[in-house]
């Protein structure tokens, strides 16, 4: 007898509870229920998880009293704070959408994202009132403004019609609020990618996607005792903005683990280092430029950084920076993803055996893109979408499937179709994969330099030049060349006190040594070197290679 697929479906018992994957369950059904654990905001505010839950209920009451209903959009302009954490939960939990505004965008771009997302309520830190004053007359959708401030005082002279100050409104709101169930595929968050050309694109995620991403990250970070784990006795501090991909989703993981959380406000190196020392921070994540800034800050020399577990993402980490961090006792390793992937796809964790390797050998592994998280179907493919061999040498584009990837760009069907062409999400990253499944990104498809028909990796060349003791920072871009098609141009920032002591010929010779050893293609010796005072960055600290190519065309 033929069995039909419908015959194998689990029968639905009418009284059984169909458990939707909703963000509220990360807060109310955590791995560790730790009601007296602390959540710290700079040196200004301390609350417990018990208070957090009450404040989330009060915030839900406050927002609904302001007229927010399911499907509305609540936007926030703030630095990393306990307020932001409360919004991470309360807004999606009432069925509304949280729009985390990138405060580092230009006023015109911020205006575009507010109107494009159709924000209904805007909570704004007093520091950003001058930006709001510039654009408020052109905002079409926002009907109410709430002030976020550390000193509890309403600003003078502003024309923004604030409904009130956050803490005062919260104190007046009811602590009794019942969060209803709804479809787990309901949109929970929206934010905008920091595109280097054109206006930013809206990326969105559902409750289901955020919950599954939280569980996936928790599984990989909680499955190791060797290094790089995130466990219930850790102290967490984000150094990646909460407006950018939910601070990589780690605040949701931290809350589910019930760990002590520390929120630093604006990222100032002395504040970050002081909080690290005073609050005993053991787990963070940041981009390479932030790590470089922290290690070079004068206060870093007197602070014990040993045992600090640090995921580096957003841009490639050089082996030089990795080695410097390891020498200070920082357990540093790479995480990889993008705005569209919620974001974490891979983690470069070491096996216990690898921890016995030399610092230099470990740095090569820690700087790799790493192994895919559970539930991530990751492939390296050619232009015809055919999977390439896992030989550690054949480059192709990374394409992925996972249950937490965005389904597209908000109100942009055409670009969404290109993103998902062939049924896999296209990352635009070029990489190789070895027999262990470990991925190593060699470049972005748009940043690969084509020299005499051969691909030259800008990332590999940057890593080599960064190994020179006089180099503080380097970015490599391609320049048109009549003979070779393209030639690499290295834009180099030297360390303080090294200006004039290193020449372009010396750095070219440094690169040639690696080529002669067969470490990289011989084509890298065609590199030109130009010394610069600074390298252009995007709003989230990545090298802005589109701007650099235009600037040095």
- Give the strand line-up of the largest sheet: 7-6-5-3-4-8-9
Level-1 CATH class name of the largest domain: Alpha Beta
Helix coverage percent: 25-40%
CATH topology of the largest domain: Rossmann fold
CATH structural architecture of the largest domain:
3-Layer(aba) Sandwich
pLDDT averaged over residues = 92
What is the domain tally?
A: 3
| Class from secondary-structure proportions | alpha/beta
Q: If helices are DSSP runs of H or I spanning 4 or more residues, what is the number of helices?
A: 17
- The parts where pLDDT drops under 50 for at least 5 residues are none
Shape: globular
Distance between the termini: 71 Å
Beta-strand level of the residues, as a percent range? 15-25%
Q: How is the biggest beta sheet arranged?
A: 7 strands, mixed
CATH homologous superfamily label of the largest domain: ANL, N-terminal domain
Radius of gyration, in Å, reads 24 Å
Number of strands: 25
Written description of the protein model:
- This protein is an alpha/beta fold.
- It folds into 3 domains: 159 residues, ANL, N-terminal domain (Rossmann fold, 3-Layer(aba) Sandwich), CATH 3.40.50; 182 residues, Rossmann fold, CATH 3.40.50; 102 residues, ANL, C-terminal domain (GMP Synthetase, Chain A, domain 3), CATH 3.30.300.
- Helices cover 29% and strands 23% of the residues.
- A 7-stranded mixed beta sheet has the order 7-6-5-3-4-8-9. Strands 12-13-14-15-16 form a 5-stranded mixed beta sheet, sandwiched between helices.
- The N and C termini lie far apart (71 Å).
- The relative contact order is 0.09.
- The mean pLDDT is 92.
